[in-house]
Design goal:
single chain, alpha/beta, Rossmann fold, Arc Repressor Mutant, subunit A, 3 domains, 5-stranded parallel sheet, 3-stranded antiparallel sheet, 11 helices, 18% strand
Length: 342
């Protein structure tokens, strides 16, 4: 499984990534700040069945991104190179790196190479004012000594030990093909595969509470399907929405601000001050929205600066409700074969 965390600079992407990686048993997690072009080819079995994390995807070369993408999907890397034999002759040599791996990637870019995004579950950092207030409150409590750090460490070690207890068992999903994702999602083939794999993961995590077939395989239940839909809902929304996570949050805040102010036009400085967003972020967001024809530049002069107007007021909440109903209704119509009818 692979996930991508997307958010603006300073919003806590790396911290979230490190907290997740802390849950992985020691020796099975690898966090990288930088990867050289050829290093993964020489990994051998070093990263086989392990979890990897990349702090800054944007800083990697195209060669590394390509190699890592192939490692994600193919679970193996094969490279042909030359070596010098003792007698001085040159010979061809095959170098193999073995997976499979799971990965967690952080990026500030709204849209990275599509072939990379389609392989991952997408997670957008919550950049809302309310979330910032919760984070600041937690930081203050920690500094005042009101947070029990030992209890946090104990919870982390408990999860690590739980992973050690779980057995590497196969999972079968008798409901595969009975819950369909919305056709509007991008790369439906890959997202459907990601969803099915996630259902298996949920069932595997609950292997001590799940039935097994004659071959000892874990049988996924309706509860696993519902849990997978709930956990993946935001990812599915991001796959349907043509705005990336950070851009969508900015656009929703912009619409709310203009509605509260009772105005149609707005300027860059007004939005910077009203939404507390940096100059570079506002310029980037407005350019992206203009390219997607959500806003339009209507005036430029030395007195008012750049003046914009929203030309497409989409109903984001209606989209979310539609997707939620689409998934929930399908699951509610299914009947668990283990339960008696009536």
């Amino acid at each position: 499984m692979h996930a991508l965390i997307q958010g603006s600079t300073g919003m806590g992407k790396t911290l979230l990534m490190r907290k997740v990686m802390d849950m992985i048993p020691e020796g099975k997690s690898h966090i990288w700040t930088r990867i050289t072009d050829k290093s993964l080819y020489h990994a051998g079995r070093q990263y086989e069945h392990s979890s990897t994390a990349i702090e800054d995807w944007d800083g990697l070369s195209e060669e590394v991104q390509y190699v890592f993408r192939e490692f994600q999907s193919g679970h193996i890397l094969r490279s042909s190179t030359t070596e010098k034999l003792p007698d001085g002759r040159m010979s061809s040599k095959e170098i193999i790196a073995y997976g499979p791996i799971s990965s967690l990637i952080c990026t500030t870019q709204g849209a990275i190479y599509e072939d990379n995004m389609s392989r991952c579950f997408l997670t957008a950092i919550d950049e809302s004012k309310e979330q910032s207030e919760k984070i600041v409150a937690y930081q203050n409590k920690k500094m005042r000594g009101e947070i029990d750090s030992k209890a946090e460490d104990k919870a982390t070690h408990l999860i690590q030990n739980m992973i050690h207890v779980l057995e590497p068992l196969d999972v079968v999903n008798p409901y595969a093909g009975q819950v369909y994702l919305p056709q509007e999602v991008h790369k439906i083939r890959r997202l459907n595969q990601l969803y099915l794999v996630f259902v298996q993961q949920v069932a595997w995590w609950h292997q001590l509470q799940r039935p097994r077939d004659e071959q000892g395989r874990i049988i996924a239940t309706l509860e696993d399907l519902q849990m997978a839909c709930n956990l993946l809902f935001e990812t599915i929304v991001l796959k349907v929405d043509e705005l990336d996570g950070s851009l969508r949050q900015f656009f929703e805040r912009l619409k709310e601000y203009l509605t509260n102010q009772g105005q149609e036009r707005f300027g860059r400085r007004e939005i910077r001050q009203g939404l507390k967003v940096s100059k570079s972020s506002v310029q980037r967001y407005l350019k992206d929205l203009e390219d997607l024809e959500y806003v339009r530049l209507i005036n430029v002069n030395k007195y008012q600066g750049f003046q914009y107007k929203i030309v497409f007021w989409d109903d984001y909440q209606a989209l979310r409700s539609k997707l939620k109903s689409h998934l929930s209704e399908q699951i509610s119509k299914l009947s668990d074969p283990k339960r008696p009818n009536g």
